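Milestone M4 deliverable, item 7.
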Amino acid sequence: MNKLYKKGFTLIELLVVITVIGLLSAMVLVGLSGVRAQGRDTRRIADLRNTQNALEIYFNANTEYPSSTDWDSLETELINADIGVKKLPRDPLLSRSYEYAVSGDGLHYVLMAGLESQDSQALREDSDGVVYGVSCEDPSYCIEL
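Output delivered:
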């Protein structure tokens, strides 16, 4: 009977192994949070580029950009223009939103998304300041045309 007990693990050994695995998992998840934020920022920039493409199609059909004052009305206007837009993208976190503003003459616009990463390379290449009433100060990424 003594041989049976020597073949298995003790409760203490199992608890130590489970604790070590838990600590390693926690460290990996903490390390991935920055990568996940960068992924969401990349998606935000791609969303603005796709919206920019839809705006250019709209401009070619109407010789001016939509006169909408917010993202939801821009979506409605692009859908009703019958240019192939089914819906506009939303921010991956949903607690943030994208912004759109148009110039008074309808020939220029700005698209804005707030990024999570303050040191993103994209922030060095975007518009800064206030454009058509939209604040484009970092960490906001703006596309201006």
